[in-house]
């Protein structure tokens, strides 16, 4: 009479619920960060955003702030450049994110700790003033440049965004999800989702970690707000830059090199937007766009979908390093994007702007041609 349990199951029984079992987060790294943060209970933390604030670094900073608050650590998000890209402005404004723009009056004294997110570089305009403070953490997804002297380091070159790493910490700390009833948590989830989308071409280049993060964050994301923030309209000034870039373009097989002239710093974020736009040109897989920002710095962006070009290696090889500061002019991730900034220094004082521009163009062209292995 040995009937199996299956066979005796009543026919009218409802089919079993399909249990969606999300991949459990690997909690190892969060356990380490947790231990680190708990050692600094009650301290004040300066979270430094190097370079231009973008969705991935802003949202990672917010997540860090949120996680650190569990340990009564008060965090200030400090940046050195104004948020210029209209999409990033919308993010900061609509989510009411408090980013502090550094100036000389900023008092560093109350801070015991500092940390970095989503950056390769740890040199900042205040590096010498951070001495004596504890470098508590460094979390990033760009190519590792060398040893990082932080108490906690998490560098994952194979993931698409720093936000996904922070979402893993959140998944470990709050396995039942964030709370959609809490405005702060909705803001955090929405910002993280935007950061993830922004660094992965709206998930086209996402890794498993981004999808797991998205599944975790989704119940708490304000999607209508996300749509508004991600609105891809182009500022008129960016359109003008595209026009200039098209006029100046030089095409070498699948590579495109161009420049957009003099750019004011508040429009600097137009440069990567131009590069992204030109990458859509059929037959082109790599684009380098540069301009002179505020008359002082040659600033460029590289975008690629080539299988053979690593933006990080390419930019370091092409433009080399500043021998005094001992840091590379450019860098990026291994997959699809990078940027560079080369100060014009003393020569920027010339009244002959055309000559200055021609000189900068000449050098960039030369180095680019050399890096792609062509000699004109
Ligand atoms: Mn990033």
Topology overview:
Blueprint lengths: L4 H4 L19 H11 L5 E6 L5 H15 L4 E6 L6 H9 L4 E3 L11 E5 L16 E7 L11 E4 L6 H12 L9 H17 L8 H10 L5 H7 L6 H13 L1 E3 L2 E9 L6 H9 L7 E8 L3 E8 L6 H9 L1 E2 L4 E2 L1 E3 L4 E7 L9 H19 L5
Parallel strand pairs: 1-2, 1-4, 2-3, 4-5, 5-6, 8-9
Antiparallel strand pairs: 7-8, 9-10, 10-14, 11-12, 13-14
Helix pairs in contact: 3-5, 3-6, 5-6, 5-7, 6-7, 6-8, 9-10, 11-12
Bound molecules: manganese (II) ion.
The site of manganese (II) ion has 6 residues, from loops.
Walk me through what this model shows.
The chain is α/β, with parallel strands linked by helices and 376 residues long. It folds into two domains: 28-229, inorganic pyrophosphatase (n-terminal core); 236-371, Diaminopimelate Epimerase, Chain A, domain 1. 36% of the residues lie in helices and 19% in strands. The protein has twelve helices and 14 strands. The strands form three sheets. A six-stranded parallel beta sheet has the order 3-2-1-4-5-6, with helices on one face. The chain has a six-stranded mixed beta sheet with strand order 7-8-9-10-14-13, sandwiched between helices. The protein has a two-stranded antiparallel sheet with strand order 11-12. Strand 8, helix 10 (270-278) and strand 9 form a beta-alpha-beta unit. The longest helix is centred in the last third of the chain and has 19 residues, at 353-371. The N and C termini lie far apart (88 Å). Bound molecules: manganese (II) ion. Residues 56, 118, 141, 161-162, 199 line the site of manganese (II) ion (MN).
């Amino acid at each position: 009479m040995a009937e199996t349990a299956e066979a005796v199951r009543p026919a009218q029984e409802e089919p079993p619920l399909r249990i969606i079992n999300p991949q459990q987060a690997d909690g190892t790294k969060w356990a380490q960060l947790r231990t680190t943060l708990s050692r600094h209970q009650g301290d004040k933390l300066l979270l430094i955003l190097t370079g231009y604030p973008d969705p991935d670094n802003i949202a990672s900073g917010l997540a860090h702030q949120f996680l650190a608050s569990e340990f009564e650590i008060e965090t200030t998000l400090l940046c050195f450049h104004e948020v210029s890209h209209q999409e990033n402005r919308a993010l900061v404004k609509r989510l009411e994110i408090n980013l502090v723009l550094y100036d000389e009056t900023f008092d560093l004294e109350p801070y015991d700790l500092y940390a970095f997110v989503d950056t390769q570089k740890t040199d900042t305009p205040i590096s010498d003033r951070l001495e004596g403070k504890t470098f508590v953490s460094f979390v990033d997804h760009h190519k590792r440049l060398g040893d990082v002297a932080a108490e906690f380091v998490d560098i994952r070159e194979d993931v698409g965004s720093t936000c996904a790493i922070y979402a893993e910490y959140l998944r470990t700390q709050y396995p039942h999800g964030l709370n959609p009833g809490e405005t702060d948590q909705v803001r955090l989830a929405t910002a993280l989702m935007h950061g993830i989308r922004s660094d992965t071409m709206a998930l086209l280049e996402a890794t498993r970690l981004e999808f797991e993060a998205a599944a975790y964050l989704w119940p708490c994301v304000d999607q209508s707000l996300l749509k508004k923030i991600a609105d891809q309209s182009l500022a008129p000034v960016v359109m003008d830059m595209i026009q200039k870039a098209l006029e100046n373009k030089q095409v070498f097989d699948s590579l495109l090199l161009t420049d957009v002239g003099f750019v004011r710093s508040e429009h600097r974020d137009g440069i990567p937007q131009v590069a992204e736009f030109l990458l859509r040109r059929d037959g082109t897989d790599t684009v380098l766009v540069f301009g002179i920002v505020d008359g002082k710095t040659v600033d460029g962006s590289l975008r690629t979908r080539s299988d053979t070009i690593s933006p990080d290696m390419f930019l370091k090889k092409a433009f080399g390093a500043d021998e005094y500061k001992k840091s590379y002019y450019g860098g990026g991730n291994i997959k699809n994007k990078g940027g560079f900034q080369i100060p014009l220094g003393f020569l920027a004082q010339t009244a002959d702007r055309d000559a200055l521009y021609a000189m900068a163009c000449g050098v960039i062209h030369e180095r680019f041609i050399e890096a792609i292995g062509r000699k004109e």
